[in-house]
C-alpha cells in the first residue's frame, strides 16, 4: 500500500513540474510575442493563472505530506516525547477542522463556479476552483492518518523529530529557505 501512495505522490510531483513548466513557457512566449510581434496569446495569460492556482493547491498537499509547511519548531523542540505527541495531535486536529471547512466551502461555492465561464477559454470555473476538493480532502486524509497513528502509539521517533524540525539535513534546510 505504501508503494502505491508513494507512486501517487510521485505522479503529483510530476504534475507540478508539468504545470510549472507550462506556466513558464506560456508566459515567456507571450512576453516575446508582445515585444517582437506586438501581439500576444490571450489564452496564455488565463491558462497561466489557472496553472498557478493548481500548482499552489496541489503543492500544498505534497508539502503537507513532507512536513514542509511552516511550524513552530523552536517551541516543539523544547518538549519531550509526550509534549511533542500532544502538540502533533492538536496540530492535526486543527488541520482536519480547517481543511474540512475548506472542502465544505468549495462544495458550497462549486455550483456558482460551475455556472461561470472563463472569459477567454470558456472553460467552466468549476475546473479551476474545484481543486479545493482535492486539497481539502488530501489534507484531511493525511492529518487523519497521522492522528490515528498518534492515538494508537504507532508514530515513530523519526516522525516526531521531523515534526519538531530536528532531523533535517543541511540540504533539506537549504531547500526550505
From TrEMBL:
Principal subcellular localization: membrane
UniProt membrane topology term: Multi-pass membrane protein
Domain Tripartite ATP-independent periplasmic transporters DctQ component as annotated: residue spans: 23-152
Its job: Part of the tripartite ATP-independent periplasmic (TRAP) transport system.
Protein name (Swiss-Prot/TrEMBL): TRAP transporter small permease protein
Cell compartments where the protein resides: Cell inner membrane
Species the sequence originates in: Sinorhizobium garamanticum
InterPro entries according to UniProt: DctQ (IPR055348), TRAP_DctQ (IPR007387)
UniProt entry keywords in alphabetical sequence: Cell inner membrane, Cell membrane, Membrane, Transmembrane, Transmembrane helix, Transport
Membrane-spanning residues: 12-35, 47-64, 85-107, 127-144
